[in-house]
Design brief:
alpha/beta, binds zinc ion, 17% strand, 9 helices, 262 residues, 8-stranded parallel sheet, single chain
Amino acid sequence: MRPEHIDIHGHLNSSDFPNDLEEVIRRANENNIIVLNVGTNYGQSKEVVDLAQKYENLYAVVGSHPIDSVDEKFDETKYAELLSRPKVVGVGECGLDFFRLEGEVEKIKERQESVFRKQVELAIRFDKPLMIHCRDAYEDVLRILGEYKKTAGQTLRGNIHFFAGTKADAQKFLDLGFTMSFTGVITFAPQYEELVKFVPTDKIHAETDCPYVAPAPHRGEKNEPSFVVEVVKKMAEIKGLSVETLSAQLVENAQKMFRLPF
Ligand SMILES: [Zn+2]
């Protein structure tokens, strides 16, 4: 059945939802919401793949986060195995995060770039979109993607999650065939309005990034996929569209980028 909304980036796993995982997934299902459940390290990636097997309204994205997986030695073979499982629709969240780095900064940056490159290569090899995490590193992510674009062409694609760059950055990502997603932050931080307006309606997605940053009017609560409707409402308001029109477009956008089968 065609969903009402797609939360294209959430973290539903037993460590973030120790007591209420089943309930949160059921609530999303009752609200006709599909969730792209995103891993941030190998253990979580395995879990999101298992959950996608168990719950019809969940899909899995597997990868290694630049900050949340610093102790992990990236093992391509293990991730490649996960990527061949059913309902695994993307690689991530991966990318670069240079926000407040401390210690051996150059070494940390090198490690992040090397792990990111391996995931870009996996995404190309498996013909999957990337789910990119980028913080204070837009130039570097653009440089790396630009390099791969030359040989990979349209196979290289994906989404910049929790986009917080400039309009110029946004345009460069669009030129590379990437989309951008926004979280509940847009419901209470007016500085996102211009960006949301700028990103074309057929290149934008809504996400919760749950359990973090619940949208208004749920601020302070633990975030969950059902709240994605608040992100969609705010996006519709900013873009001057009805919620129905925009949500239909958002479902189509996610379906197109992640090749969702409905
Ligand atoms: Zn995330």
